[in-house]
Amino acid sequence: MNEIVPIVPSHAVSINDSVSAEEAADDYEFLIRQLVRTRVVKASQISDCPKFDLVLLELGNDGHVASLFPNHPALNEREEWVTFITDSPIPPPERITFTLPVINSASNVAVVAEGENKAHAVLLAVDEIGPDCLSIPARMVQPANGKLVWFLDRLAATNLEVSDLKN
């Protein structure tokens, strides 16, 4: 069964890459707020954040998701929906990203990880292995009223036990 999902062009919002990261984050947040204000995107009942149907994230080797890196101040942003960084530990140095409250307001969040180089980050994100795991951004992805699903290949799941995979 092949169904085509119609995408209204005005609902596809791209990032303005001709301005600074700070300006791009402000512009993008403004556009998302307009979509919420006009009810194109629903608002979360728990917060004022947009409630996207799906947020798709890739896990980084260090446990980062989106452009939220371990021990970075952007992890603590609670007021803004979109934030920026100018000191990314991996290229490119300037990025914009949704904040954790926006990610955690989604109806569905999918985290994708592939490769042996992601196995330790997957373990830190999903297993109770000590205080070091608390600063892992992927571990902070916990949709309040939504579902979190991990998609792992065999190599990324190498360090997990069967009980970890069932939870």
Polypeptide structure, described:
InterPro entries: 6-phosphogluconolactonase_DevB, 6PGL, Glc/Gal-6P_isomerase, NagB/RpiA_transferase-like. The protein has a single domain (16-166), classed as Rossmann fold, CATH 3.40.50.1360. It has four helices and five strands, in the order αβββαβαβα. Strand 4 (108-113), helix 3 and strand 5 (147-152) form a beta-alpha-beta unit. It is α/β, with parallel strands linked by helices and 167 residues long. It starts with 20 loop residues before the first helix and ends with a helix. It has helices spanning 21-37, 100-103, 119-126, 162-166, and strands at residues 55-58, 82-85, 95-98, 108-113, 147-152.
Total domain units: 1
The helical percent reads 10-25%
Q: SSE string, helix = H, strand = E? A: HEEEHEHEH
CATH architecture call? 3-Layer(aba) Sandwich
Percentage beta strand: 5-15%
Rg result: 17 Å
Name of the CATH first level: Alpha Beta
Based on secondary structure, the structural category is alpha/beta
Low-confidence stretches: none
Question: What would you call the shape?
Answer: globular
Count of individual beta strands: 5
* Amino-to-carboxy terminus distance: 31 Å
Named CATH topology:
Rossmann fold
Nearest-integer average pLDDT:
90
Query: Biggest sheet, open or closed, and with what strands and sense?
Result: 3 strands, parallel
- Biggest sheet strand line-up: 1-4-5
- Please tally the helical runs, counting DSSP H or I stretches of 4 or more residues: 4
